[in-house]
Structures are given as C-alpha cells and as structure tokens.
# Entry
Amino acid sequence: MNLSNGDLQEFLIFPSVGDNGYPSLVLKKGVLEKGILEDDMLYVSYYSSHEDNKICVYLAEINLNTLINNKVLVT
# Structure
C-alpha cells in the first residue's frame, strides 16, 4: 500500500486456480543473532486446487528485504 495516497499495488501472484483463498500472514522480524542480522520474512499460507484439482494448503516464504530491493524471492 502506498502510505501517501492509500493506493494498493499488486506485487506477488501465488499459484492458484479454482477454489482458493483464506490466506494467513505471519511476519517474522529479523533479529540480531550471533552478530548477524537476519532478514525480515513474511509467511503466507493459503489453499488452492490448482494441482490435479485436489485442494491443498500451501506455504510461501517471502524475504521482505529482497522484495523491497525489487529482487523478489519466494520459496
């Protein structure tokens, strides 16, 4: 979301087809551990039936530091 005008912008598309939805989001802020600052991570779970028409739950791990630097990394 653009904080200056409230506009929303699509920046990631997750694989999904048919019946899908109910996303859950968890933000893990980077912490300093053993002198190394970990990246901020966003975990997104959702269900979809895009593989073999079977409903499954998926989990995406998004590195927000990479995303902010316009180098999207979703695993």
User: Anything to note?
Assistant: Strands lie at 21-28, 32-33, 36-37, 41-51, 54-63. The chain has a mean pLDDT of 80. Helices lie at 64-68.
